[in-house]
């Protein structure tokens, strides 16, 4: 039941689709691992269908088993790789290569490890997986570090660290930091190394993961050890061991246990450590771990150094064979030196000399390698920083270019906008000027016409007057005709004046309209012996009336006065009232003419209809503007009232 | 008060109209045509040749060279006793007002029937001044404007209308005939005419004073 529970939880978390491709970055706790292993094995056996899900499962299981069951992990990873290649499944390829790279590294088969890790990196970049990229960098860095090629390790170390920092995942960042610290440690830059690892240690509270803790403290321990701070190193290693106990089986724990033993030996003496060293050696040989075999053997050898040189020599020889066989130079060097001393103690001076020479050779290689390493690392660093500098400069230049480009574009846009505005402004002002010029031209034409034609008409009327004077008063028809001629020409002049006036109506204000009404009344009525009385509204604000309103009102008014003059019977007085009321302009023309005989009030008097057209026109004008017109005879005379809307 | 026949001078540039006016007016017993000219300059040039100085000058406004209104001061300088009446096609109150401010005593339209023209001229000689309602409005406005302005430092002009004068002018503005105005205020027709004359004179003086004041201001400023 518990297993099922674990299975469900893990299954949910791990077998979820894309996340499974990213799977784990860190080892699982052992109980979880067992559950995972069993459940996945079952699934893989039960569902042999070759699809991407199978690839996923193979990779997950392989990766999980990498620490404690490497052969099986390897096999699973290979299966996953083959299937992924067949299906062209990129994430599958990525993970499989990664697992294989890891496996080869752990087995110190660095060429294969490099190949697979680089493949993993390529696929991670292609599938845009920055996390796995970072892991791949990490792996590469560790490969180079373990090879001792610190210069080559620098690149992946810094790249991986940069990526990790960008990902904002403290686990990944901590691990990369420790690795960077290891690289610097390998190059002898102890201060820098300590800086890195301490930075990683500061991240631990955020991480709260035992593997991270272990890695960090192991790093610290190594730095302390290098500096000869045995107590601090021991403490660090103890914490490391504690953290690793949850993940590693005895195989994984062995290196750290050995380190702890070495530290204890430094702090106390080798003899005290002997039993532990013996146990560790047995374990190392059983688990076939050469480095630890050599280390444990050396420890034992040291412990016997003073008391039993032959035992020391035996163990030292064991250590040397294990170390030299796997190019573990520092160990080999130490073992050789110990052998030399032991041989000397035993009196075997020839052997002692040989061993010393070997040790010296190892030392040379080591120091030479060391120098070379440092040199190449320094070169790599310089190159990197130079490249970085160049990159920075290039980037800055690009930025500048972009900014300049932006500025240019902005400037251009602004210029365009300005030009557009200017053009619009010019067009607008041009059109306005055009309109004004047209208006001025029209007015001038009208004025000229008015002058010229008006002049001629004046001449006509004057001639008519003269003729009236000259012709005898008794010739009544002639007189009448001349009088009519005179009136007609005068009327023609008035019409012309109205036309000129009419051109100004768009800008007509109410006061101007009233002036015109008055002037017209005085032009027309006194000649017909009619007095006029004006009752006009307060002119009000000097704002322009709606264009058609003034013109139409004036024309209605003219017609009305004309009617009075022509048709009013015995009228002597006209009253004109103009008022502004409730958004309307009201015009009233009332005369005191007598009504036509035998016509009831309310009936339009036939004499008044005057051709009918005049009244009809007035009606139409009023209606065209949305207003009303009432014209009817009344007891006091004829009354005309027009109401036009005037907002 | 001069007695008929009145010596008349005519300034008009349009030949047909000039001839017709001459034909009509000079045929009237009340008038004696002394001088007929085409322009103000021609008139002034021909003035020394006149046997008698004209008492009444009928002048067009639209003339070549100096306009009729511009010519009024010159005419009055040469003939202080003469009365200048403007004759024009334009009935615009503004122009009439300007003419009156310049010193004209009357303003007549060329449209006017000849008989009426004669009447008006006789009125002028009798001391009257024909004023149309449009003009009256401008006169009132002018005096209102002057009363609002501060009096020029020189003390020239700024003579306001008396209450009676203002009444009469308003009456004209309302469109009442001289007769009605006279009856409304209980005065005689002649009094009405005199008042109008004095209004014109004040206008003239006031406008002259205004011009001088403005000129002084410009010099000072």
Euclidean distance between termini CA atoms of chain A: 90 Å
Beta-strand share of residues of chain B: 5-15%
Strand order of the largest sheet of chain A: 1-2-3-5-4
What strand line-up does the widest sheet of chain B have? Answer: 2-1-3-4-5
Given as residue ranges, the uncertain stretches of chain B (5+ residues, pLDDT < 50) are 152-156
Helix content of chain A: over 70%
Question: How many helical elements of chain B?
Answer: 9
The CATH superfamily of one domain in chain A turns out to be Histidine kinase-like ATPase, C-terminal domain
Runs of chain A in which pLDDT lies below 50 for 5 or more consecutive residues are 13-24, 602-609
User: What is the molecular shape of chain A?
Assistant: rod-shaped
Tell me the overall shape of chain B. globular
Q: What is the correct CATH architecture of one domain in chain A?
A: 2-Layer Sandwich
Total count of strands of chain A: 5
What's the Cα radius of gyration of chain B? 18 Å
Order of helices and strands of chain A: HHHHHHHHHHHHHHHHHHHHHEHEEHHEE
In CATH's first tier, which class of the largest domain in chain B applies?
A: Alpha Beta
- Helix percent of chain B reads 40-55%
Give the name of the CATH architecture of the largest domain in chain B: 3-Layer(aba) Sandwich
Distance between the termini of chain B: 45 Å
Strand and helix layout:
The complex is a heterodimer of chains A (647) and B (221).
Chain A: H1 2-14, H2 17-22, H3 30-46, H4 52-64, H5 70-87, H6 90-106, H7 110-126, H8 130-147, H9 150-167, H10 170-186, H11 190-207, H12 210-226, H13 230-244, H14 250-267, H15 270-287, H16 290-305, H17 309-325, H18 329-346, H19 349-470, H20 476-502, H21 510-524, E1 531-536, H22 547-567, E2 573-581, E3 584-591, H23 606-609, H24 613-624, E4 628-634, E5 637-645
Helix pairs in contact in A: 1-3, 3-4, 4-5, 4-6, 5-6, 6-7, 6-8, 7-8, 8-9, 8-10, 9-10, 9-19, 10-11, 10-12, 11-12, 12-13, 13-14, 14-15, 14-16, 15-16, 16-17, 16-18, 17-18, 18-19, 19-20, 21-22, 22-24
Chain B: E1 6-11, H1 15-27, E2 31-37, H2 40-46, E3 56-60, H3 68-78, E4 83-88, H4 93-102, E5 106-109, H5 114-125, H6 133-148, H7 163-173, H8 178-185, H9 189-220
